């Protein structure tokens, strides 16, 4: 028999074939009949031995130890698991199939090797997946490449719109990008890409969305921010950036653009942004800049490298602006009074704004920024850190390193 879609599904782009553990809720059962459209049989899956992931030590950025919240690990037991062809149509059908087979249980989709395409990562680009998944699941549906990271390639930038209750892990988009619009209870994890962006578009607010160990390893030349989180016609709430790595973007010498590494913008409300275990290198103007409508921004055990220290790893390319408006700030929030909190973090370069809370956080400035609760510690020697210090604290995420720590099962 065929599985019917639980929600309207729009799948547009073509494809050429080529956090914590969640226990299953039911014992082994006879597999259901395969869905049509490139799917195998839907059935249960026994747990397998977890892969050995090398210990990265006490570092910022990806370690292979962070996983999307509310999402079973790839090696857990599953109430519903299915293989599917490497097409967006098959992936959408597989998500619906496992959700129907285990509406209250753990569910997994294994994508066979191949190549996926997209239609661009603009906020109005045609989405590759739209209106897929549903609210109310006990855990997210996990979607991973069956044969591990890099076994599925993505050859163009892409957008996902209004995808709900799903976590994708192990899909690399580099040197292309992804934008998530109006996603809810969603994660994109263990991914190397040029940009990971969020927009709250016409389909509704963006809520409960995570980027987990997503890596932009190479500096870019241009006028765009490295990553950008924007509100369009709707708000965003409860966004997380966990264990990520963001290289800078350097604008041209004649450019008037304001170039930041992670920028928040838009007029709708933004409530709740967690930046945890992440390293962020400042772009020409700043590392991080919020909008006036943002609240609940928390830096937790995060390293921001501004001033001129990012040049130790990312020298200015020929033709780049030589910081004519001053050295890049780590945080540029001059008018902020209670938007941001910091815990167990390090900021190198200027930090502008008054924080709501500062706890066990060190800045390179001899005169630390103000905090309503707690206080910052000052360590001017941070203004002289070199490439060796950066490598110790935030190892360069080479492909070999990522292959070693991103072992799905």
Keywords:
409 residues, mainly beta, 19-stranded mixed beta sheet, nine-stranded parallel beta sheet
Report the sheet with the most strands, covering strand number, pairing sense and barrel closure. Answer: 19 strands, mixed
Gap from first CA to last CA: 30 Å
What value does the Rg take, in angstroms? 21 Å
Low-pLDDT runs of 5+ residues are 1-35
Describe the structure.
The chain is 7% helix and 36% strand. With 409 residues, it is mainly beta. The chain has a 19-stranded mixed beta sheet that branches. The radius of gyration is 21 Å and the shape is globular.
Question: Which secondary structure elements does this structure contain, and how are they paired or packed?
Answer:
Blueprint: E1 15-17, E2 43-45, E3 78-84, H1 88-101, E4 107-111, E5 114-116, E6 129-130, E7 141-145, E8 152-154, E9 158-161, E10 164-169, E11 177-181, E12 184-192, E13 195-200, E14 206-216, E15 220-221, E16 227-231, E17 236-242, E18 245-246, E19 249-250, E20 260-265, E21 270-276, E22 279-281, E23 286-289, E24 294-300, E25 303-305, E26 329-332, E27 340-343, E28 346-348, E29 351-352, E30 355-359, E31 362-363, E32 371-374, E33 377-378, H2 387-393, H3 399-405
Parallel strand pairs: 3-4, 4-7, 5-8, 6-9, 7-10, 9-11, 10-12, 11-13, 12-14, 13-16, 14-17, 14-18, 15-19, 16-20, 17-21, 18-22, 20-23, 21-24, 22-25, 23-26, 24-27, 25-28, 26-29, 27-30, 28-31, 30-32, 31-33
Antiparallel strand pairs: 1-5, 2-3
